[in-house]
């Protein structure tokens, strides 16, 4: 009986603190996505013709996110009955979006206008003998399109002429 109580307490704590951490992370993601909305990210293999005169540089962002205790238990129960494992879906959604944001931060440091050829790599980390997910790593990478110094000068001159 004592083990069942401990299990239920851990399950409740995992649910509460996991939801709280996930909610905080989503708030951070939403605010940063708004800040980077003007930095285009495209999965196309070749950049649009508008970016033909840009310099390019590979940029990347990666993140490792751990699975909380509640999600592990919920996924284990779901494996018994089958169906979607929504507990892991939100984990992967957060990981992908965070990796893209980190890639955009790197692109912004280089002064990029856009990132094209977006790709993802995903890996499972810290699994317990194949029993659970442990953590997930997501790497987002692409090619940043950076205006040349000449293009920056032209933009500056155009902006001065319009004022």
UniProtKB/TrEMBL annotation:
<protein>
    <submittedName>
        <fullName>YbjQ family protein</fullName>
    </submittedName>
</protein>
<dbReference type="InterPro" id="IPR035439">
    <property type="entry name" value="UPF0145_dom_sf"/>
</dbReference>
<dbReference type="Pfam" id="PF01906">
    <property type="entry name" value="YbjQ_1"/>
</dbReference>
<comment type="similarity">
    <text>Belongs to the UPF0145 family.</text>
</comment>
<dbReference type="InterPro" id="IPR002765">
    <property type="entry name" value="UPF0145_YbjQ-like"/>
</dbReference>
């Amino acid at each position: 009986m004592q083990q069942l109580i401990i299990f239920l307490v851990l399950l409740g704590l995992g649910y509460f603190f996991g939801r709280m951490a996930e909610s905080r992370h989503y708030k951070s993601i939403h605010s940063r996505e708004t800040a980077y909305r003007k930095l285009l990210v495209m999965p196309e293999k070749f950049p649009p013709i508008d970016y033909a005169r840009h310099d390019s540089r590979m940029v990347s962002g990666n993140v490792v996110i751990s699975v909380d205790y509640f999600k592990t238990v919920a996924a284990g129960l779901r494996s018994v009955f089958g169906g979607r494992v929504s507990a892991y879906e939100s984990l992967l959604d957060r990981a992908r979006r965070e990796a893209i944001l980190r890639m955009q931060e790197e692109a912004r440091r280089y002064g990029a206008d856009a990132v094209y050829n977006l790709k993802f790599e995903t890996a499972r980390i810290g699994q317990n003998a194949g029993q659970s997910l442990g953590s997930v790593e997501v790497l987002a990478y692409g090619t940043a399109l950076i205006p040349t110094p000449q293009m920056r000068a032209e933009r500056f001159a155009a902006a001065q002429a319009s004022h």
